[in-house]
Each structure stands twice: as C-alpha cells, then as structure tokens.
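Researcher: Let's try something more involved. This one mixes different molecule types, so please make sure each is placed in the same coordinate frame as the others.
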Amino acid sequence: MAVFISAVGFGVVTAAILAISAVGFTLQFSVTNVFNLAFGSVMTLSGFVAYWLNHAGLNIWVAMAAAAVSGGLISLAINEAIYTPFIRHGLNLFGMVIVTISVAVIFDHGLQAAVGPTFFSYTAPAGKAFRFADFVLTRQELIIVGIAVLLTILVQVALQYTRVGKAMRGLAINASLARACGVPTRGVIALAWFVSGVLAGVGGVALFLDISTFTATTGSEFLIVIIAAAVLGGIGSPRGAVLGALVVGIVTEVGAAYWNAELKDVLAFGVLIAVLLVRPQGLFSRLATERAIAR
Amino acid sequence: MSAATQYYIATIVVYICVNVIGAWGLDLQFGVTGVLNFAFILFQAAGAYTAAMLSLGPASASGGFQHYLVGFKLPFPLPLIGAMLVGGALSAVIGLITLRRLRSDYQAMVMLVISVVATVVAESVVGLANGSAGLSLIPNPAKSLTGLTLQTQNWLFVGLCVALMLIVGVLMYGLVYSPYGRVLRGVRENEAAVEAMGRSATRARLQVFIIGGALAALSGALLAQFIGAWAPSEWLYPETFVFFTAVIVGGRGSISGVAIGAALVAVGIQQAVQYMPIGSDPTLLAALEWIITGLLTLIFLWLRPQGLLPERRRRYLRRVKTGFAATKLQESAGT
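Model: All components are placed in one shared frame. Result:
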C-alpha cells in the first residue's frame, strides 16, 4: 500500500506538468484547428531561456516566469511568421501538420547545433521534503503542483466567465459565426497562441526541473505524452486535458512502481489505444464531435 | 576502380533503391490516397526485424549473445516475402485502429504516438529483438553464395535491389494508373464523391495502408540485410519525416517524381552535408541534415507544392477525346 501511495504521489507531479502543457496544446488547437507539433520545441526553447537566466544567477522561479513570457512570444512569432502565411496560402489542415513538424525539426536541430548533444540541468535545490501519510513531496514538487492547479483553474475560469474567454469558445465551436458576431478573430487567435506558448514555457521548465537533466530534444519527446493526455481527455477540451493528464500521470507512475519503469509510458499509451477503440472522440467529446474529428 | 570506390558506389545505389521503394510505399498512402501515415518508419522496422529473424536461425545457435522472439534459417527469397507479409499484417492491425473513425490529421497524431510506443517497447523488451542494442550479423543473401569475390557478392546484392526497385516501380504504375488508382485519388480529392459512387473510402485507405506497409517492410528488409544490423536508433519517429519530405519534394502522387525525391532527400542531403566546409562534427552534420530536410519541406510546400515532377492530371481526358464525350465537349465549346 505504501508503494502504491508514493507512486500516486509521483503520479500527481507528472500529471501536474502534463496538465499545464496539455491544456496549452489543446486550447490552441480548439481555437485554431492546427495540430501544433512544434509545441514541444517551444517547451524546450523556453526551457533553455530559463536555463541561461538560471545560470546567470537568477532564481529558478523567476527564470520560469521569464520562460513563460518568452514561450508566449516564440509561439506567437511562429504563428505570425509561418503558420498564418501558410494557411492564407491555401494549405489545408492536412498540410499544416507537415508544416508544424517541419518547424519542430528545424527548431530542435537548430538548438542542438547551437548547444551540442550534451545534457543540461538547472541549479535549483529540491527543497525540504514534506510528508503526507506515505506521500513524500519536495518543496519544488509542491510548487509545481500548486502552479498547475492555479494555471488550469485560471484558464478554466477565464474561458468560462471573461469576454475574451467566451470569444475563444465561440471561435472554437464555429469560427465564421463568431466572426459574424463581431469577435475580433485575429486578435483572439493571436492570444490563443500566446497563452499556449506561456503554458508551454511553464510546462517546459517544470518538466526539466522534474526530470533534472534535459537535451535539445526533450520537449519534443515529451510532446507524445502530452498528445496522449490531450487525446484521451478529448482533443480541444481543456477540462478533458486535465483529466487525461491525471489518468496518464498516475497510470504511468503506478505502472512504473509495480511493473517495469522503462515500460511505464507504454501503459499510458495502452489506455489511450483502448479509449480510441471504444470512444475515439475522447472523454470530453463535444468539440471533437463538432469538428468531425472522430465518429 | 579501387575496391573502396566500388563499395562506396554500391552503398549509394543500395540506399537509393531502398529509399525509393520505401518512398513509393508512402507515396501510395500519402501522395495518391491522402493518408497521413506518421508511423511509416515502424513498418520499415517491422520488415527489417522480420527479415533478420527469418534468416538468423534460432537465437541459441549463435551462442546466445543476442535474444529475439523466434529465429529461422530460411533460404533467399523467403525472408523478404515474410517481411512483406508481416509489414502488411501489422499495417492491417494499426489501420483498423486508426483509419476507421478519425479525421486525417488526427490519424497522424495517433500514429505518431504508436510509432513512439513501438520504439519504447522494442528498446525495453529485450526478448523481442535484443532491446536497444538491436540485432546484428543479419545474413546478406548474396554473401551466402560461395566461390565469388566479396566485390561480386556486393554487386550481386546491388543488382537484387535494383531489380526489386524496378519490379515495384512497374507495379506502382499499374496500380496508380488503373481504375483502382482513380478510386484512390478520389479518396484524396473528394471522399463524398467516392462514397456516392459506391466505393468505400475507408476500405481504400486500409488497402493502401497495407500495400504501403508491405513496401516499407521490403525496404527495411533489404536495408537490414545490407547493413547486417538493425537497432531502434535506426527507426526513431522523426525518420518518417524524411520520407514525407521525399514525397513532397518529388511530387505527391507522381511515381517518377517521388523516386527522384527519395534519391535527393534521403541520400543526396546526407552526401551533400559530408562535403560542406563545416568540419566533421557528427552531431553538427546530423543537425544540419535535419534542418535542410525541414527547410526543404517548407520551401516546397510554399513555392512548389506539386513537387519537382508533378502528378500527371486528367490523363484519361485525352483518351476520351476521340469518343462520345469528346464530341460533346467540342459541341459545348463550339456553341
């Protein structure tokens, strides 16, 4: 039982990191309809921004805030400079997936050429360990979980109650109707990319803190797990993404404790494939059904 | 020619043939039919592993230094045929999961996940295919012929690859320019129209998924036999992207175009990078290869989305010109 509870503890931390990133990934997808495979590269790039600031002597949490802003700006810049022109050029959704993977490949390997194939890590103390029954979490892990709770609630509240949040939801359900109702679509889409980038930045730094060493391709490798969580929850639904993150996070860590640490991700993907067979639109399915993503 | 030059040329030719066969498999799926198979490299790997296991013999026979699921020692064409069968069967399974109920870009996403899972499984379950160390000492069918010099054996294998490439090429032309090929292009261009004509788009997608998977497996089998080794690092998920670039650069749906694209992208970039004056740091060279591949995809999608040698369109209209429809066309044009 003790093993189980401590595994759940690790699972909560993994789920927190996943939730931050998966909400960013899925929110931007719901508004723009583009599957952004360069999301992991934005995580890595902003993670490296935090790394350089951190090694210049800045506190890691301040560096994380800076990474969040730079993540937002990078994400916005990629959309304005590459994605939007391609969409205007008449490329379909299908082609956009290839554009985003090209951007990911260029960014990851550009960064690799710049920093080399070595491993990096932040200088940040894990902090005092706190014990809750059989849960042992460090101060650092607690802060990450706290940030995740805060950010996901913030996004949810903003989507539910603010004007711009409603505009985003409107755009997600029916873009042309939203435009006809006077929603400034361009601005809202830009904001969605920015927010998604901010979440990628925070998620990236949190991930790199949690796994302690990272390379120029760590973000893109983790993107697969993020996609699994987002698809599991129902693509385009931030609430679903949080739920998907919790399932994936806890299943992987409990699986690692009882079965085989190397195969922990396989377990999560097994759940994903089972869900896809039975309910391909995911757990929260409204948007996925609306967009005819799955039937 | 010195032995080294001969070996260099032979290697380049084998790599071109292997990549052309693979790229044709993807072209059938992505170029002709419009299926985004982001797990493509998985089927190449399946072929490579199958060919290896069907020719290595039982695992215990080699002193047990490598572990794998099953081992047989079958004569020449059987490992290649077995590889194609396994590639097709695996495609059928994965196609049934992904192709039936998901939108095309969503299919891509799910296949990407499947491709990564497969790598993780192959790396960590050592009993399957020797884990991350991979299989080695995979027999080359040409090298089992005794009484020949090493160079003759090498050229014999080159001949085998070229012959297989030509056979696959002829089959591709037959398939793509047949009425069935028109159904496939219809699935890409207008799924509703295909369904209205009484053809199942899902069935067509599943069929090309299986045929393409078998071609991927054939290319993997040849590659594994040529290199003599096969490990998970050979088939990480970004490798699929190289095939996509080859198809886009060559021309989606165009058979000769994709052959040129495969030669240029999969072999040409790597060779070009070797001769660039940027030193010989392997990480830098590999990174540069990837950056060029990515940029090439973006540039082609922007400037020339139809590729170097575009797919020939309205091929059948010309044939129709002499018939009834042509007179109708001329009449309507004349009035």
